[in-house]
Amino acid sequence: MNTSKNVYLVDDVQENLQVLGNILRENGYNIALAKTGQQALKGICKMQPDLILLDISMPDMNGFEVCEQLKKNECTADIPIIFLTAKTQTEDIIEGFKVGGVDYITKPFNSEELLVRVKTHVELRKAKLQLEMLNKTKDKFFSIIGHDLKAPLNTIKGFTKLLQTGLDNFDQKELEHYINKLDVSAHNTSKLLQNLLDWARTQTGAIRYNPIKSDVETLIGGTIDLFQAISEQKGIEIKYEHRGLPLAVSVDKNMVQTIVRNLISNAIKFTEPGGVITVFTGQEDACLCIKVKDSGVGMSSVDCDKIFKPDIHFTRKGTNAEIGTGLGLLLCQEFVQYHDGHIGVNSTVNKGTEFTVKLPV
Q1: pTM (2 decimals)?
Q2: Residue 141 falls within a domain, yes or no?
Q3: CA distances from 289 to 114, 208, 344 (A)
Q4: Domain presence at residue 361
C-alpha cells in the first residue's frame, strides 16, 4: 500500500499557505500549493493528492466553484476536500457539504485540530483505495478460479476419459500424442496454480522480499533450461545473450526466476513453430536489465495498455490454442515493484513482442 501523504493547499493568502505548509511538512506530509482556483484545477489533476485543503474566499473562483469543478472531473472526483474558512455561518458549512466537501477548518488555524482532521481524512482515503484494490483482486481471483482454472482441468479430464474408454483402440503414436497433450495441460495447470498462490501471497503481504547476492548468468540460464523441452516440442529456439554483467547482483532469486519463467512461458505461447525467443541480460543505467524478445504474433498498443491492469480481465489464446490468464504478467509486475524496478513492453502485431525488466543494482 502507498504510504506517501500528499496534500494540496489552495489559498490566495500567502501567509496562510506558509503557516499550513510548515505545520504539515513538519509532520511528514508532502505539500503542493496554489493561490488561485484555476491554478489549483490544473495542479490537482496532475498531482492526484490524498487530500485537498481549499479556501472558500478567493477572487477568481471561490472554493465552492473549484470543488464543483473537481467533482465533475473523473480523475479528481474522489479526492476528499476540506474547506478552509473564516466563516462559521451554518449556511456556508451546509453549502460546503452540498458541493462535495468532507469537512471544514476555521481560521485562525489550531495546529492540533488541523493535524487530527488531515490525518483522519488521509487515512480514510488510503483505506478506500486499498479496499478498491482488494475488490479488484477478488474479482480477478473469481475470474481465474471460475473460468481459467476450470478450462485446463476439463481438458485433463477429457483426455483421461478418452484414454480410459478407448485405450485398446489407440496405436503407440496416438497414445504418445494424447499423453503429450495431458502433460502440457498438467504443466499449464500447475503453472497457473503456482502463480495464483504467489499472487495471493503478494496481495496479503505474506510474501517476503529477500535479496541476496546472486550469479545472474547462472540464475537466468538455469531458468531457461527448464523450457528447452517445451520449446523444442513446439519447434521454437531459445537463445541466451549476456554481456556486461557484474559477477553478482543483489536480487530476490525466487522472484527473478518467477519473472523470467513467466516471460519465457508467454513468449513460447505466442510464438509460431519455427520462431525464435531471445533472452538478454546485461547492465544498463545502473540496473540489471532483462529482456525477453520473441518473433511471435505481437500485440496492438491498445492490448499493451491492458496487460498490467488487475481490474481488466485480458486474456488471449496462444498459437496452439494455449489458454492464458494474464496473471503471470501481473505477478511479474508485483515482483519488479518489490525491487523498486520497472517492467515495460514493446510489441508490433505479427512481428513480435519484447518485455524489458530493469532492477536497480
Answers
A1: 0.55
A2: no
A3: 46, 22, 11
A4: yes
Q: Give pLDDT tens digits for 184-225.
A: 777 767 766 776 777 667 766 667 888 999 888 888 988 888
**In a domain? residue 24:** yes
**CA-CA distance, 165 to 350, in Å (whole number)?**
41
Instruction: Tell me which of 99, 132, 165 is where a domain ends.
Output: 132
Distance (Å, whole) CA 275 – CA 60: 63
Q: Is 284 left (phi over 0), alpha (psi -120 to 50) or beta?
A: beta
Does 236 lie in the same domain as 164?
Answer: no
Number of domains into which the chain is organized: 3
User: Are residue 287 and residue 199 in the same domain, yes or no?
Assistant: no
Residue spans of beta strands (DSSP E) within 138-247? 212-214, 237-243
Q: Which residues constitute the domain of residue 78? A: 6-132
266 Cβ contact list (under 8 Å, min separation 6): 292, 324, 328, 329, 355
pLDDT tens for each residue of 82-115: 999 877 667 778 888 999 999 998 888 889 999 9
